[in-house]
Amino acid sequence: xxxxxPLDSKEEVEELIQAGANEFFCGLLEEKWHEKxxxxxxxxxxxxxxxxxxxxxxxxxVMMAQDHHVPVYFTVNEHYYIDExxxxxxxxxxxxxxxxxxxxxxxxxxxxxxxKKMNLPVKLQIGTGxxxxxxxxxxxxxxxxxxxxxxxxxxxxxxxxxMVERGPGIEFSVFIINSRCVNVDGFCTFEHGLSDQSCFPLxxxxxxxxxxxxxxxxxxxxxxxxxxIIREHRFLExxxxxxxxxxxxxxxxxxxxxxxxxxxIHGVKIVGxxxxxxxxxxxxxxxxxxxxxxxxxxxxxxxxxxSARELYQNTYSRPCRxxxxxxxxxxxxxx
Amino acid sequence: MEQALxxxxxxxxxxxxxxxxxxxxxxxxxxxxxxIPDADDLxxxxxxxxxKKIDFTLVTPYVTEDGLERVERLLKTLAxxxxxxxxxxxxxxxxxxxxxxxxxxxxxxxxxxxxxxRGPRLMNVLDKIPEESVRYYRSPGITxxxxxxxxxxNRINRVEFDNLLxxxxxxxxxxxxxxxLYLPFAYITTTRLCLTALCDQPDRVKEVGILPxxxxxxxxxxxxxxPIMIANLIRKGNTIFLCxxxxxxxxxxxxxxxxxxxxxx
Lengths: 335, 265
What we know:
A: 2 domains; B: 265 residues
């Protein structure tokens, strides 16, 4: 089971590989895209940190990683592109291929079909934006040209197990740590990062904004008694949960590594393009320790869960929390 | 222009009473596999459309393996009882099954797979960004000729659209693919971490996950307001919608309007 790590610059390559990364994924932003589309991403990351700045740097990073037999995948994974963007997007892909990337990560069915026809010497992988919730969807993408799929965040371990067992023999990867999106990424049409931090309501993810929430359609005040008001207050409380927490407050699914190894998941993915090198290293080391324990120590499920929870608390100084757990069904099991 | 009525439950066939405006019925669910109707409900609806002599479109959601089995039972029933019907798919797995086993059903690309941006917040920046960016927000992926070619090759010649606040530019989308416009509820985002599930049980306030539910979505709907959103958000079940009743100037570019008398959950 491989650790798939974000990579933002050539300077990070050696340290992330030393920490235990097995594959990299990255994005790149050039000025000519940014001029036309300052708030529209080419790769699901806003302008700013989290991108390579030139294909020359990308090429150097790829060569350094290749020395360690670590492949680099290139993200062009916006949910869709329009006609006038295609010249730029195809140009990106061609330059990335020349730079030596092992594959392209994408989300759009049409883009996949187009790249497949180009017969590029790289793998084509469907990212979480492809919304593969069942084995037949995997089959569709495989038929259209994909050789790997990153599954959506919103699947249980058992749903993943059933899909992989029935699946068409394609590589499946899953998210394991950071940015547990509230909504299904590939079906979410909110646009994040519509400004810089100076305008917080446009900058912050829409799912985490504070909202005034009421029942709809509202019942008039005259029709409600105190009992109604108290009841409403109680069940409205839950509706505010995503504004009281941050979806990137170290969400984690490491307890599920046990099952993912059994299921033969190809790789576990660390979300985090744009994170500091220090945080990336910490995340990789955390997962590397657990995967090594799994492969070396023949732990039982219960012992592994216990070990994962202890390491999580020691590494991130936080307890396990249901709303920050990628696979919260594991919290119902003893550890 | 064809007018269709979209209902997500049998009881809502009542919206068809006393009107002859609609020549097609949409029936089904797009957002939650737990609400997929059973085959008996589908049979009732098929009898209804046969009696009314109108056309029929089955609407299907994104699905796990379990949900796909339930959808397939409906496809099987539909293929026998009403071949030639349309099926709106919002999951490529449903399309794959149709493509392999049900050639007599007509696939329609659902609005969840038409990924144009819908968040009302972007209206705040529309007059501050380059014209290329504005065109992106108003244009669909089917502006790309090779994307249209791919759809047509796969027997998909209709795409579903929400009524976007920023408008929809269909000028470069060709005539081969037909377009439906949903009114007035546009979906914005959906989740399987449903905050409506068990929402009236105070001891479970902190629980968030793919939880069992008692179909609380059929009892409670929430309105979410924030000054930065120029339209209120409506959370019904696991999905957030907006309501846009303004008819777009380019309505003629659509050949079908799909009326939602209620939020279709």
